[in-house]
Amino acid sequence: MTTHTLPTKAVSTVDSRRAARRRGDRTGWLFASPALIVLVALTVGPTLYLLLSSFSRVELFGGQSEFVGLGNFAAVLTDPEILSSLLATLVFVVVAVSLQMLLGLGLAIPLSAKVRGSGPAAALMLLPFAVAPAVSALLFRQLVNPNYGWVNHYLGALGVIPADLDWLGRPATAWLTVLGLDVWQWTPFVALILMAGLQSLSPEVLEAAEIDGASRWQAFRHVTLPMLTPFLGIALVLRTIQAFKTFDSFQVLTRGGPGNSTEIVNLAIYRIALQSFRIGAAAAVGLLLLVLLLALTPVLLRLVGRRGDNEEA
After folding, report:
1. CB of 253 within 8 A of CB of 140?
2. Are residues 116 and 233 in the same domain?
3. Does residue 35 belong to any structural domain of this protein?
4. Which helix (H) or strand (E) holds 238?
5. CA distances from 132 to 67, 97, 249, 255, 270 (A)
6. Is the distance from CB of 179 to CB of 95 less than 8 angstroms?
7. Other C-beta atoms within 10 Å of 131: how many?
8. Sign of the torsion formed by the C-alpha atoms of 18, 19, 22 and 23
9. Integer Cα distance of 172 and 262 in angstroms
C-alpha cells in the first residue's frame, strides 16, 4: 500500500489558514463582546431577577428579602382582581387581534395590486403605526372628550350618540375606545405583512386557477389563502405577543377604569409592584404571563399551519 503525504509547503499553508481562521474567530468575538454583554445585561439579568423575586417577599425600600417558595403564586392565583385582569387581557387580545387580522387582510388585498396609487396609499397607511402608543392614546383621549371632542360633536350632530356621552366613564364605551385605538394603530402592521406575502405569490398559479374556471372567491380560498398561511402565522404570532404587552394605551386612556373594568394584566402588575410595592407578587404575575406566551406561540403556529393544510386538501 502506498501512502501519500502532502508536501511540507502544502501542510504549512493549511496550518497557516487554520491559524488565521482561529484568529479571525477570536477577533470577531472580541468585537461582538460589548453588544453581547449589553444583551445579556438587558435580557438574562432581568429574567433571573424576575425568577428569583417571584419566589421571595422583596422589600423594595431596604430590609431583608424573605424566601416564600410558591407563596406568591398561590396568592396571585387566588386573587379575584388578578384573575379578572387576566380574563380581561385574554378577551382584549382575542377581539383586537381578530379584528386586526380581518381588516389587515382586507386592506392588503387592494394595496397589493400594482396599480397607480397603491404606493402612496401604503405609505399613508403607515402613519398610525409610526405614532408612539402613548401619543396615540393622548390623541384619542382628546377626540372622545365629552366637552370638546370631535367624536361627540359630529356623531352627536348626526344623532348617533348623545352629545355629552362620556366614552371613558362607562365600561362598555371605555372598552370600545381602547379597542378602537389598538385596531387603528396596529392594523397597518398586519396589512403590510400580508401585502408583502400577496406580492410574493406566483402569478402563474393564480392564472392557472383562472383558466381552470375558478371564481375569484374560489381562487382566493383554495389558492391564495393557503399560500399566504406563513405570512398569516407571522402576523398572528407577532400581534398576539404585542397585544399581551399592551400597557401605554390603557394607562393613558383609562388607567384601568372606570373602577377596574378595563384593568388588564400589565396594569395589574404596575399596580401591584409600584403602588402596593409587592414586588414578589408582581414578579409572579409577570412570570405566569411569560409562561402563557411561551405556551401559546407554538399553539398559534400549529393552528395556522393546520388551517393551511386543510385549505390545500
Report:
1. yes
2. yes
3. yes
4. helix 229-244
5. 39, 19, 10, 18, 20
6. yes
7. 15
8. negative
9. 9
C-alpha cell at 64: 431583608
The angle at the Cα of 33, spanning 27 to 34, to the nearest 5 degrees, equals 125
* Count of beta carbons in the 10 Å neighbourhood of residue 180: 17
- Domain of 91, CATH number, reads 1.10.3720.10
Do 288 and 200 meet the contact criterion of CB atoms below 8 Å apart? no
For residues 161 and 279, membership in a common domain is answered with: yes
Whether residues 187 and 102 fall in one domain: yes
Residue entry with cell 474567530 = 25
Average pLDDT for 24-33: 75
CA 75 to chain centre: 28
Query: Looking at this protein, which amino acid is placed at residue 31?
Result: F
Q: What is the DSSP letter of 168?
A: G
Cα dihedral 162, 168, 169, 170 in deg (nearest 10): 80
Look-up of cell digits 423594595 = 60
Q: Identify residue 221 by its one-letter amino acid code.
A: R
Supply 23's cell numbers. Answer: 484568529
**Cell numbers for 1:** 500500500
Q: Quick one: which H or E segment has residue 67?
A: strand 66-67
Question: Within 10 Å of residue 27's Cβ, how many Cβ atoms?
Answer: 10
CB 112 within 8 A of CB 198: yes
CA separation for the pair 103, 101 (Å, rounded): 6
pLDDT digits (tens, 9 = 90+) for 152-194: 889 888 888 888 889 999 999 999 999 999 999 999 999 999 9
d(CA 228, CA 193): 10
Do 87 and 40 lie in one domain? The reply is no
What does the alpha-carbon distance between residue 165 and residue 143 come to, in Å, rounded to a whole number?
12
Query: With contact defined as beta carbons under 8 Å apart, do 233 and 305 qualify?
Result: yes
What residues have CB less than 8 Å from 192, skipping those under 6 apart? 108, 122, 125, 126, 129
Q: What is the pLDDT of residues 69-120, one digit of tens each?
A: 888 899 988 999 999 999 999 999 999 999 999 999 999 888 887 767 677 8
* 258 preceded by a cis bond (ω within 30 of 0): yes
